Amino acid sequence: MGETTFPTGTVDTHMHFYDQRFPSAPAAVLRPPDATVADYTELQRELGLQRVVVVQPTTYGMDNTCQLEAMASFGDDSRGVMVVDASVTDDELARLTALGVRGARFHLLPGGAVPAEMLVPTAERIAEYGWHIQLQTNGRDLTDHLARLQALPCDLVVDHVGRFMPPVPETDASFAALRTLMAGGRCWVKLSAPYESSVTGPPAYRDVADLARVLVEDAPERMLWASNWPHPGQEDPPSPDVLAELIADWVGSAAVLQQILVDNPTAFYGFES
Q: Range of 66's domain?
């Protein structure tokens, strides 16, 4: 990999932009400082990132304008995951699809804009457009959501190694629920943001790393990687070097690293190979 350079064609599948020109949602829990396209391109240069998936943060609720504006700066090298619910019109879904949006985000933690009850109805609206559901929740709640998630008529992406808060043993029922979803063949997991749930902490985040390695062993073909830049809410976020070292350590081989950083996301998000 060199020092911190990833393979050509690497896709960062989860990051956010923040810009005070755009109003925060009244219920926003996080209101980070500005994080701009110019700022992010520095990370791209440091890690050798070519492609990006821009994810609507909770800060802006259901107003996707900030992320869509930033996405446009990257042209065909960007895709988006935005926040919509079942009331979204066909015209809006067609517009967003043309702009590169490929998923609907559900954040089932404080600050989220759309409740769990809307998962299936929203999935039914977006499925015909080839979109997926992207889910962030406390992984310990996956047993409660399992039946609903198995009923989705579209693919599912689970954020941040499941974000088990705090991390659970490999034998825990909630981790088994995630593995059950993956075994169904339509669930993908992002290997990202261990600091969101780890108790053991940096630099190795051992408790999250243990779970990540199990998932990689189970289904490397459905793993994705993400920076979670600009690490909202983190006072001391990991450096680009640490991000590179973590994923290399979790994956263990250059061939699987290529699969997770390049091949999987290129196919999943519909980038040209």
A: 11-268
H or E element at residue 215: helix 206-218
106 DSSP β-pair partners:
135
Q: What pLDDT is attached to residue 253?
A: 93
CA angle 142, 58, 45 (to 5 degrees): 100
Query: Could you tell me if residue 124 is inside a domain?
Result: yes
Is residue 1 a part of any domain in this protein?
no
Residues annotated catalytic, as ranges: 228
Question: Which two structure tokens, joined as six digits, stand for 207?
Answer: 């408790």
The CATH number of the domain holding residue 18 is: 3.20.20.140
CB proximity list for 105: less than 8 A, separation 6 or greater: 55, 56, 81, 82, 83, 134, 136
Instruction: Look at the block and give the residue holding tokens 């400082």.
Output: 33
Q: What is the pLDDT of residues 30-61, one digit of tens each?
A: 999 999 999 999 999 999 999 999 999 999 99
Contact 62, 113 (CB under 8 A): yes
